[in-house]
Design goal:
Largest sheet: 6 strands, mixed
Radius of gyration: 46 Å
Distance between the termini: 124 Å
Oligomer: single chain
CATH architecture of the largest domain: Sandwich
Structural class: mainly beta
Number of helices: 1
CATH topology of the largest domain: Immunoglobulin-like
Strand content: over 45%
Strand order of the largest sheet: 3-5-12-11-7-9
CATH class of the largest domain: Mainly Beta
Number of domains: 4
Helix content: under 10%
């Protein structure tokens, strides 16, 4: 079909017209009379867009948006209020609607014979009453519905067939289906019993905040104790809010707490299961005791509890102690404790010489399968004479790399091995050594430290003799 043009009269508000064959694109260019208001004409031109989206109040999703201006047209043509409708993102199973207006811009009636829609999930709603005759300046409305059945983008077309000069008008449709977020999340993990004595099993369950969706929810399980075995996973079936599992408990040699954990969807829940031994059991309050620095011939004492944590009587047949300066009292061996009974063992460190010392307490009992109970001891004997060595020095002045602190080193006289005394950089130009021993001579030297931690060469040395 060939094209034809009509030139408008001078001062006319009508647009130049070009006839097109069916399905061809067309453009609408507005002209204004001299002295007219473009703003007012602009508002009249978009009157069809103001009602382009009508949503029913019962809809759970939004309505489509009209993108761009009218599709364009010439006298004798039907002009849609938009060439594109986007429904945006709509939850699968929900519905969004949009209404497009088609205006007869000619001076003669135009007949619409067909209104069709293509594309998955797009449908027409309402009665279209075709064929329909649209008078000059009349408007015909069409409502399109988008109801996605699966996640992902969808595209389609709305076509309006008429006897207008423009032929078939096409409006592009688009939308995206999205799966609704699952409201179910992990709420708790629990067991029927909070404590198990010896061996056995405990009935446990995981619980959700809401029913599991289609396909269910897998929950990962774990135990902090090798004596408690749980399945790697348990699945809450679709439509259910909980699922059960068993925790299998093996015997333990000492009372302990096993933590069961459940993880799903980024949420973690835990349950504490107390494990007790079947038969006698011993729980030592502390397996290490440090006395720190203790003045010579000045005893220091610490206590450790011994608890019968089994289900039958505990007998500690013997207790032995090794290490210089250490002694124990408070418990006479052998001793028998009923379940839950506690005995207090007093440990003492009374150093006779200066220096570090270590010791060990060993307890022999009637607990079957358990390792021998021990308590490790440590302490350092220091002189109580009160002698100290106070060092002072001048800060370096002839340097381009200023000192931020100092390290102090000491060696016993006759030794070339120096030991760093300060645990961190000393920022002052003084230092007091309080760890000297009677009858010993010490040699000291100092290095300066810059901001990068680099040390200088050592200073001159100073020797102090302790009476």
């Amino acid at each position: 079909m060939h094209s034809r043009f009509f030139a408008p009269r001078a001062g006319s508000t009508r647009s130049a017209v070009r006839a097109f064959s069916a399905n061809q694109k067309f453009r609408f260019n507005s002209h204004f009379q001299s002295g007219s208001s473009p703003q007012r004409a602009y508002k009249r031109w978009w009157v069809g867009l103001a009602s382009a989206c009508i949503c029913a109040t019962t809809l759970l999703s939004g309505c489509g948006s009209i993108e761009g201006g009218p599709a364009g047209g010439v006298p004798g043509a039907l002009v849609p209020s938009s060439s594109t409708i986007s429904f945006g993102t709509v939850t699968v199973g929900q519905t969004a609607r949009a209404t497009v207006s088609i205006r007869n811009e000619s001076t003669n009636p135009v007949q619409i014979s067909q209104v069709n829609v293509s594309g998955q999930s797009f449908t027409l709603t309402g009665q279209n009453n075709l064929p329909a005759t649209i008078v000059s300046a009349g408007v015909y409305t069409v409502t399109v519905q988008f109801e996605p059945t699966a996640a992902g983008s969808a595209a389609g077309d709305l076509t309006v067939v008429s006897n207008s000069a423009s032929g078939t008008a096409t409006i592009t449709l688009s939308g995206t289906g999205a799966v609704a977020a699952n409201p179910a999340s992990l709420s708790a993990v629990s067991c029927d019993s909070e404590s198990i004595v010896g061996t056995g099993s405990d009935s446990c369950a995981v619980t959700l905040t809401a029913a599991a969706p289609a396909g269910g929810i897998a929950v990962t399980l774990a135990s902090s104790s090798a004596s408690v075995a749980v399945p790697a996973t348990v699945t809450v079936a679709a439509g259910s809010v909980s699922a059960g599992f068993s925790a299998t408990v093996a015997s333990v040699s000492a009372a302990q707490t096993a933590t069961l954990s459940a993880v799903a969807g980024g949420a973690t829940r835990t349950f504490a299961l107390q494990l007790s031994i079947s038969g006698p059991g011993l729980t030592v309050g502390s397996t290490t005791v440090s006395f720190g620095n203790v003045n010579l011939n000045t005893p220091a004492t610490q206590s450790v509890t011994l608890t019968s944590s089994g289900t039958t009587a505990l007998t500690i047949s013997a207790g032995t102690l090794t290490g210089p300066g250490f002694t124990m009292s408070g418990v006479t061996f052998p001793v028998t404790l009923t379940p839950g009974q506690v005995a207090t063992l007093d440990l003492q460190f009374d150093p006779a010489t200066s220096g570090a010392a270590t010791g060990l307490v060993t307890l022999s009992d009637n607990v079957t399968g358990a390792a021998t109970a021990t308590i490790a001891l440590s302490g350092t004997g220091v002189s109580a004479t009160g002698y100290q060595v106070q060092l002072t020095w001048d800060a370096p002045t002839s340097t381009t790399d200023p000192a931020v602190g100092y390290n102090i080193y000491r060696a016993e006289s006759g030794s070339a091995s120096y030991t760093l005394l300060n645990s961190s950089v000393n920022t002052q130009t003084t230092y007091t050594d309080t760890t000297v021993q009677d009858g010993t001579s010490y040699t000291y030297e100092v290095t300066s430290v810059d901001a990068s931690g680099v040390q200088s060469v050592p200073s001159n040395t100073y020797t102090a003799a302790i009476p």
